[in-house]
Amino acid sequence: xIGRYVISIVTGVVVTLTLLxxxxxxxxxxxxxxTKPRERAQLDFVRVKRNENINTQEIIPDKPPKPPETPPETPPQDMDNIDPDTPTIDVARPTIMGGTxxxxxxxxxxxxxxxxxxxxxxxxxxxxxxxxxxxxFVDMSFTVTIxxxxxxxxxxxxxxxxxxxxxxxxVVKFKYKPRVVDGIPVEVPGxxxxxxxxxxx
Length: 201
Known about the structure:
This protein is an alpha+beta fold. Among the domains are: 1-28; 112-197, TolA/TonB C-terminal domain (2-Layer Sandwich). 24% of the residues lie in helices and 20% in strands. The protein has helices at residues 2-35, 127-132, 164-171, and strands at 116-119, 136-144, 150-158, 175-177, 179-181, 184-186, 188-197.
């Protein structure tokens, strides 16, 4: 029992002396840190003068080439100096047929043949596709009437639905020479075409 007390007392004395030594060491080193002047970093700035010389010489454009001189006017012919004995050439008048029957329904001259495109209206590029930079095409089918107009436009295939309305509006404005069979114009169903939408560079 007494041995434990002795060990405890010795241990406490050793710890206390150790703490006192450490505190004394901290106090001694702390005074030096407070009294020692701090070293400040010094930055050197070097200013470089900018070259402010600007070429203010005016650029004079080259003079445009002179336009070619106009040729002198041709002097009027002197009609009094024409020789009346000069030989003349007799040109026969063309013969004009007196028939006025041009045939065809409605008194129109309609030649035999298949339908032919006359007017193809370019489509208006959709603004949404234009803003997104999209390109594509629309395959259309329609009927060419006896007057050459377009009816019943149908979208067969398209790369984007944004192009379909613009393609339909363009197709209905197409004009064709109608197909003529035995002198009578007939409708042509199932005419197909492709409307292409491409961005110009």
